[in-house]
Design brief:
globular, about 200 residues, alpha/beta, Rossmann fold, eight-stranded mixed beta sheet, hydrolase activity
Length: about 200
């Protein structure tokens, strides 16, 4: 494991790099709004990705590196994320296919930036379809805008809602809520199997 600090237009971000033996692709994973990169579902997804031969960068947004808990505005999150992706793809993951992902708020960032960042796939953990109790404030369009293969792992009782299916979107429902911490083994296996399937044509 290696840690790197990366300058962005909104202050330094940090990436914790977990290298796979094979290195067939690289997956950038972002944290939730008030949490960090040690969240159980991010740890489980990292385990699954490296088992599939995919390098993982767990990305800490500048506001977290600066010690703030309140998230930055969406536009700042997206700009910082794309700066980190550009840096990593140049210095660490040259010539490798990039995948974007994250949990909750980090999943939204991954969806919004997938096109601009040339991601070949997106991994969403606990995508917050709407604020709890407010289904009219839907974020489903962010998910629908993603044009590449997408994996969504969602808790069956997630108060942030359930994503709608689509032809290029795989949805895995796990027991539990928004934390996705009840079944890390199945989460790891789901990420590993999905990555094998979508990367096989690119190998």
């Amino acid at each position: 494991m290696t840690s790197a600090q990366i300058d962005t237009p909104h202050g330094p971000a940090r990436a914790e790099l977990h290298c796979a033996a094979e290195g067939r692709a690289a997956l950038l994973l972002g944290h939730g709004a008030g949490g960090g990169i040690g969240a159980p579902d991010l740890v489980a997804a990292t385990r699954g990705a490296t088992a599939a031969g995919v390098h993982v960068a767990l990305v800490e947004q500048p506001y977290r590196v600066a010690g703030r808990r309140a998230p930055a505005p969406a536009a700042q999150l997206d700009t910082a994320w794309l700066a980190v992706a550009a840096h990593l793809s140049t210095l660490w993951f040259a010539d490798l296919p990039l995948l974007f992902g994250g949990r909750s708020s980090g999943a939204r960032v991954a969806c919004r930036t997938a096109d601009a960042g040339d991601a070949v796939g997106v991994v969403c953990l606990a995508f917050p379809v709407h604020p709890p109790g407010k289904p009219e404030k839907t974020r489903q369009p962010e998910l629908d805008a993603v044009r590449v293969p997408t994996l969504v792992v969602q808790g069956e009782s997630d108060p942030f809602g359930q994503p709608a299916p689509a032809h290029h979107r795989d949805i895995v429902s796990l027991p539990g809520d928004h934390s996705l911490k009840r079944d890390p083994a199945t989460l790891s296996r789901s990420v590993e199997e999905w990555l094998h399937r979508i990367l096989r044509p690119l190998d």
